[in-house]
Specification:
Strand order of the largest sheet: 4-3-5
Helix content: 25-40%
Number of domains: 1
Largest sheet: 3 strands, antiparallel
Structural class: alpha+beta
CATH topology: Hypothetical Cytosolic Protein, Chain: A
Bound molecules: zinc ion
Distance between the termini: 39 Å
């Protein structure tokens, strides 16, 4: 029997993808917004395709803020955006 691949929804384009195709944006327990490259840190996570266009969509449509349940300052978006460049 094939192992079921866990799927997550990109907050930019809304497509379901496997976790390894997505970048995990994490709100840490300290309330900091970071990119979780390990995928294992504690906190509330949101997923975005490894694609700058999806990041820009998530920024524009506030999908990331909805998913993390908090407002994200412009400078945090700018910092995250650099990781997608
Ligand atoms: Zn996407």
């Amino acid at each position: 029997m094939a192992k079921k691949i866990p799927m997550r929804q990109c907050v930019g384009c809304g497509e379901m993808k496997s976790k390894k195709e997505l970048i995990r944006v994490l709100k840490t327990t300290e309330g900091e917004i970071i990119i979780d490259f390990t995928g294992r840190q504690n906190g509330r996570g949101a997923y975005i395709c490894n694609d700058k266009n999806c990041f820009l969509k998530a920024r524009k449509n506030k999908g990331l803020e909805r998913s993390l349940k908090q407002q994200i300052p412009e400078e945090v978006y700018d910092r995250l955006q650099k990781e997608f460049d």
